[in-house]
Design goal:
With about 400 residues, the chain is α+β, with helices and mostly antiparallel strands. The protein has a domain of about 130 residues. It is about 25% helix and about 25% strand. The strands form five sheets. Strands 9-10-11-12-13-15-14 form a seven-stranded antiparallel sheet. Strands 2, 3, 5, 6, 7 and 8 form a six-stranded mixed sheet that branches. Strand 6 and strand 7 form a beta hairpin. The longest helix is centred in the C-terminal third of the chain and has 22 residues. It is globular. The N terminus is likely disordered. It comes from Coprinellus micaceus (Glistening ink-cap mushroom).
Length: about 400
């Protein structure tokens, strides 16, 4: 396929782009165009760039497409996403998900124009769930959004801005009055959550895509509203899930951990792993193994501040000691290793009598089984500190971390 250079770009980008013209006007609605496929139309070619794997033009084109999809999926709740790439006379359909992207063979629009028409015709007949929308999420009403603002207005903006907090605080383009809200239902509970924003970096559509935010839980019977912490993402199906970890920690009475209000898997799951290289229509050659990811959610009934926000030295030392107690207890009593200790995974919370530290983010945790010889297909950790030999996946070597 040959891709012409762009001199004019028409992009339908169904994402929230910022506050309205009136700075203080509350935003209570969510864009209704969130279910349309993203279209990037290239026109007026001046030169041709081959869309091949090892050429610079191919890298740039794929990066451009991925950034569009990554930004859309970062600001909305999708299980998958469709795009249409029209490059000159050639057309491709792409289906994106958190584990992979399925790309069709390109076809000539002048010879087979009905294929494009057929795609949009069938897309129009799909349900919202089949199009990729998360059916657990819907726009919050004006009253629900107003009540949530009252409970969250005194909290640090990072708690409801998420990963984009630094960018918006630096530019001063949004505050709690202009923050849109959504409604998420799970296990019979209703949560009013801030609509996610596009982070300054990390627009890849692939990966676990974990995001956490302060949320307002609404009791269906009493209508009582309480603030909690809600995190959603995509977990590796070959590992123990974070809700299962919290249940095991609670059963073993591990100290200094958060209490899980609810959590579990959603319906959405990736499908890229199903299409192996032996399929007749799958391109053969150097095909990377695609893992399966499962959409999941977890709600904690505590909201604290990260360790880096300590105010006095004794708060820092005390929170660190509490977190190490949680780590040690989990390893000795429950046989679970955290594997992701960082300043932002240790929270300082207020109790009735004192402040203490709790250890959170157990989504990288694993069960310690000395008898197991299985090797992990996917490495998790800070790349700068991982062994070069380990990254090269040298065969015949097994590494283990002994229990204390």
């Amino acid at each position: 396929m040959v891709l012409p250079t762009t001199t004019r770009r028409i992009l339908t980008h169904p994402t929230w782009t910022g506050p309205r013209k009136t700075p203080n006007a509350p935003v209570t609605s969510w864009p209704r165009r969130m279910t349309r496929p993203l279209r990037s139309l290239k026109r007026h070619p001046t030169r041709c760039i081959p869309l091949k794997r090892r050429l610079r033009g191919g890298y740039d084109t794929r990066a451009q497409l991925a950034s569009y999809v990554g930004a859309t999926m970062a600001t909305q709740y999708h299980s998958h996403f469709f795009t249409v790439l029209i490059a000159g006379k050639r057309v491709r359909f792409l289906r994106w998900e958190r584990a992979s992207a399925i790309v069709t063979k390109s076809f000539d629009l002048t010879h087979e124009p009905l294929l494009l028409f057929e795609f949009f015709k069938r897309f129009r007949q799909l349900t919202l769930e089949q199009r990729g929308s998360n059916t657990h999420v819907s726009p919050a009403t004006a009253t629900e959004a107003s009540d949530a603002r009252k409970l969250l207005q005194n909290m640090a903006p990072e708690l409801w801005l998420g990963a984009a907090g630094y960018l918006f605080l630096k530019t001063n383009t949004i505050d709690i009055r202009t923050q849109p809200f959504l409604k998420l239902t799970f296990e019979g509970r209703t949560f009013i959550i801030p609509a996610p924003h596009c982070p300054e970096r990390g627009l890849s559509p692939f990966g676990r895509a974990s995001r956490g935010t302060a949320a307002v839980c609404v009791d269906q019977d009493t209508k009582k509203r309480t603030v909690c912490f809600l995190k959603d993402g995509w977990r590796d199906t070959h590992r123990i899930s974070e809700p299962e970890v919290y249940k095991a920690l609670a059963e073993n009475q591990i100290r200094n951990i958060a209490n899980m209000a609810c959590g579990g898997d959603l319906k959405a799951s990736t499908i890229g792993h199903i299409y192996r290289a032996e399929k007749a229509w799958v391109r053969r050659g150097d095909v990377n193994k695609v893992r399966q990811l499962q959409s999941c959610i977890i709600v904690l009934d505590v909201v604290g501040r990260p360790l880096v926000a300590f105010r006095k030295a004794h708060q820092l030392v005390g929170a660190l000691a509490d977190a190490m107690e949680a780590y040690s207890d989990a390893l000795k009593k429950a046989g679970i290793m955290h594997r992701d200790i960082s300043p932002y995974n240790i929270l300082i919370v207020n109790t009735n009598t004192e402040q203490k530290g709790i250890l959170i983010d157990w989504d990288h945790a694993i069960r310690i089984n000395p008898a197991s010889t299985k090797r992990c297909l996917w490495r998790t950790g800070t790349w700068q500190f991982m062994s070069i030999a380990l990254l090269k996946k040298l065969e015949g070597r097994t590494y283990s971390a002994g229990r204390p």
